[in-house]
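Design job #97: recover the sequence.
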């Protein structure tokens, strides 16, 4: 195929959400992918990259629905990993996702997880530091996705 041939637009991945409540939340599955995320076909992404990108979208969407008194944290299934106040997220191809932050006592924490074990619960925790604005990591992470 020559470089002059028109590029086929990346296929949008399938997503579905069903909410039976009368006024359900705004969900990621109903939103278009950011242009930078959509420009690379899913088939060309490692499982780690694709999970990382979607986790960022879920975190940002969750934060968008929080009030000024709460920040996002993650709960982890299995073991006693507990809850992590999210300060960063990353991936290591082809199959590792890592979360950075602090636990309930404020201890610096990092969780490294294989994508096959991916199971997180987003939680709203009261702001840790008294300030006018909560720490909104989803916005910063989503901005970085657009730059990459």
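Job complete. Output follows.
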């Amino acid at each position: 195929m020559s470089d002059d041939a028109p590029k086929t637009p990346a296929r949008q991945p399938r997503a579905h959400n069903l909410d039976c409540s009368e006024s359900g939340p705004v969900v990621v599955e109903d939103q278009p992918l950011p242009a930078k995320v959509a420009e690379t076909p899913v088939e060309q992404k490692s499982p780690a990259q694709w999970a990382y990108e979607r986790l960022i979208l879920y975190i940002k969407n969750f934060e968008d629905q929080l009030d000024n008194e709460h920040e996002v944290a993650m709960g982890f299934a299995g073991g006693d990993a507990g809850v992590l106040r999210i300060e960063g997220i990353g991936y290591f191809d082809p199959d590792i996702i890592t979360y950075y932050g602090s636990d309930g006592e404020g201890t610096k924490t990092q969780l490294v997880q294989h994508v096959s074990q991916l199971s997180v619960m987003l939680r709203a925790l009261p702001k840790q530091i008294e300030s006018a604005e909560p720490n909104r990591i989803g916005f910063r992470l989503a901005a970085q996705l657009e730059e990459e």
